Amino acid sequence: MADVVLRLTGVTKRFGPVIANGDVSFDVHRGEVVALLGENGAGKTTLMNILFGLYAADAGSVELFGRALPPAAPRAALDAGVGMVHQHFTLAENLSVLENIVLGTRALWSPSLGRRRAVAKIDALMADYGLRVDHGARVADLSVGERQRVEILKALYRDARILILDEPTAVLTPQEAEDLFATLRTAVARGLSVIFISHKLHEVAAISDRVVVLRHGRVVAQAATAETTPQDMARLMVGGDIPAPKPRPAKPGAPRVDLVGVSTDGLRNVTLTLPAGQITGLAGVSGNGQGALADLLAGLTAPTAGEMRVDGQVPTDWSPRAAIAAGIARIPEDRHGTGTIGDLSLTENSMLERYAEAPMSHAGWFDHGAARAFASRIIETYDVRCPGPETPIRLLSGGNMQKLILGRVMEGAPKIILANQPVRGLDIGALTYVHSQLLAARDRGAAVLLISEDLDEVIALSDVIHVMSEGRVSPGFARGEMSPAQLGQWMAGEGFDRAA
Amino acid sequence: MTEILDILLSASFWAAAIRIASPLIFAAMGELICERAGVLNLGIEGIMVVGAFAGWMAVYAGAGLWMGVGVALVMGMVFGAVHATLTVPFGLSQHVVGLGITLLATAATYYAYRIALPEVTSPPKIDAFEPYTVPILGDLPLLGEALFQQTPLTYAAFATAALTAFVLFRTPLGLALRAAGENPASVAAQGLSVTGLRMGAVIVGSGLMAVGGAFLTMSAFDSFFFEMVNGRGWICIALVVFGAWKPGKTLLGAILFAAFDALQIRLQQTPIGADAPYQVFLMAPYILSILALVVMSRRASVPAALMVPFNKGER
After folding, report:
1. Which residues of B touch A99 (CB under 8 A)?
2. ipTM score of the complex?
3. How many distinct structural domains can be found in chain A?
4. Which residues contact B48 (CB under 8 A, 6 or more apart)?
5. In this structure, are A103 and A184 located in the same domain?
């Protein structure tokens, strides 16, 4: 076929005995969006690294625009017109947008940056693809969505004909994701091809023309998106049915946390009750006060007005230490930044909140054996895939890191669980596991606060749903009381205005 | 107070300040290039000693003055290459390697001095750079004497600062260097070699440090003494921070520090000097530098990947 832009034939890559990619073959055509689906560890990243010359394949060939790609040549794919937007952006934050885009596009010894021509080209690209960014701005001052636009502009500036996006929506708000999809549709209409790596099946269904499913390094299915369903895709990815957790009705108990008219920097007159044995869902677009609420419950801030009661008492000295002592366990939103310390081992990370208590320490002395045993128990019970308890945690995948955090939370037998975006970026297997653990904690009598931007997640799991908008919290709605569309209106702030 | 005002208004005072600033400008530009690429070069103090000795020795052995500067440059680059090899591909601690290079370079210089001049008690003199009055500009009142009656090496220092600024901010090479110091992954993602860029920056930067050292023996004085560099390298490290990693501000910082230094020398000869111990005056530039540093560098943005080794393929 003349319009095949990328053809993989029998690509195989082994790491020791592990087959990362086994006989992977598929084509990408001009002007289509191909979704590459697969759980973490299914071999998607290895495949992309082979394409970009970071690894050499043991067998098989890669053809770009009808020409064989030389193995392990880092610039070859770039020069042939493949642009990659990594999940973790490769931008220099202290440089301007323009500088990030032109980096590496001119011969190093050339005496000028060609700034004027670059600006003209970038302006044209921004107009063509509806990507608005101020090219004089420092990348550090941009939002995540804007940074992603810079990455896409970088690829387009290099005249990329194939765009590869690795988990592009993991970090975006729903609105930003919509904008991204609009850009991708424009790109495809202009004859570009897109490889979309994701495990958000609704998005895959919405944007892609074809899906290629990888499992254990092999292509297990290829199909036109129109001829398959998200349920089918999920089954193919996991290799069987995943039982969605079917929550039994909650048996709410006494209120663990009571907020009455609480305001802080970011919260406006919030009234909210978290009873024992209930999952309370908090829906809303991120940046509407969820962070402020999480900080309050974690002990990082105290109310400036109103009253907060924990187990019926107004805490006198509210701090993270006091929050932990009150039995509040946290799954933080940013698992890299606040959830873990990357260079410390799994053992050290597992005891961050309780290093000073028995059995981790006695009279001020650490008991390393007990700490390691504790970490090993978490690793085993919560299926954390890792080389061992002494591994630095930064070497783990996001899913496994989250499982360690989950284990740390659950092993403390918490009375209150603060779960802020607990499954962001996780694949279906890990996601289902986290959800079932939250449900199990609920059934044991914990009060769970689930903060999520994913409305489907909130609806599936929560016994009572509140909506946040501009620092305000809506009244609670029982399961099934509101349709997603009605909740969406509250998320846009409409219900609050009527109630006020 | 009128003494201070008199000093500040005299052309000879500013001429001295510019002269004292020149070696600092060379070395600080060298350090700035290294740090912009992500490598802290604490070898600067020792590399300046090497440059001071190598340039002077070459001229003493019969080379021309500019050839002497060239020898100093190359010797600086040799020590820079050692530093770069240890810190960039091997990713060793930049603090330890830098201090090691300073100790090694200083000791090696001492050794070479003893080998080259076993008999002498006081180091021989050379015919150093003479001041060159720039036509027309040199005749300007005040400004002429302060700026345009300097030695050629001082003019070269200012040219170096301008060139550094141009390369860093106006060329693809400079952009790649700065990106290597901010986020090396962004450079690697474009198929460029982070290792090559950083090693190049350290080697060239070290060459400039050595030229800064050579200024002391070939332009400021006409002979070589140990203790001659006397902490100027460390001052340059502070100047780069003071200048927020920008060549222009770093240049101004060097002139400011040099002006403090020139001022304290002159103040010692005034009635004020008779009242206070001379150590107070010697301290003054350093104390004022620290104060300036506190005020100026609050909002400075450090290159994000400074002192972070880069290993391809690692998270």
Report:
1. 175, 178-179
2. 0.86
3. 3
4. B23, B27, B209, B210, B212, B213, B216, B229, B232, B233
5. yes
Provide the sign of the torsion angle of the four alpha carbons A216, A220, A226, A231, taken in this order: negative
In the block, residue with structure tokens 């909140």: A353
Q: Is residue A67 part of a domain?
A: yes
Q: Domain boundary at A203, A238, A273, which?
A: A238
> Do A436 and A386 belong together in one domain?
no
Spatial distance between the Cα atoms of A360 and A373, rounded to a whole number of angstroms: 10
Interchain contact A103–B (C-beta under 8 A):
yes
**A111 close contact with B: CB closer than 8 A:** yes
| Host domain of residue A276 | 242-327+414-500
- pLDDT tens, position by position, A137-165: 999 888 888 899 999 999 999 999 999 99
Token readout for A136 is 């004089």
Interface contact B315, partner A, CB < 8 A: yes
Identify the CATH number of the domain in which residue A308 sits: 3.40.50.300
Chain B (184-243) residues lying within 8 Å, Cβ to Cβ, of chain A:
185-192
Supply B219's token pair: 């332009």
Q: Are strands A464-469 and A278-283 parallel, antiparallel or unpaired?
A: parallel
Please give the structure tokens belonging to residue A492: 């846009």
- How far is it, in rounded angstroms, from Cα A459 to Cα A172? 20
Burial of residue B305, with CB atoms counted within 10 A of its CB: 0-12 exposed, 13-18 middle, 19 or more buried: buried
Residue pair B232/B24 in contact by the 8 Å Cβ criterion: yes
Asked if the structure places residue A307 within a domain, the reply is yes
Predicted model pTM: 0.81
Residues A401 and A434 reside in one and the same domain: no
If you search the block for the tokens 């301008």, which residue do you land on? Answer: B162
Give Cβ neighbours of residue A391 (< 8 Å, ≥ 6 apart). A345, A346
Is the Cβ of A117 closer than 8 Å to some Cβ of chain B?
no
* Arithmetic mean of pLDDT, A335-345: 88
* CATH node for B2-119+147-296: 1.10.3470.10
Residue A316 forms part of a structural domain: yes
- What are the boundaries of each domain within chain B? 2-119+147-296
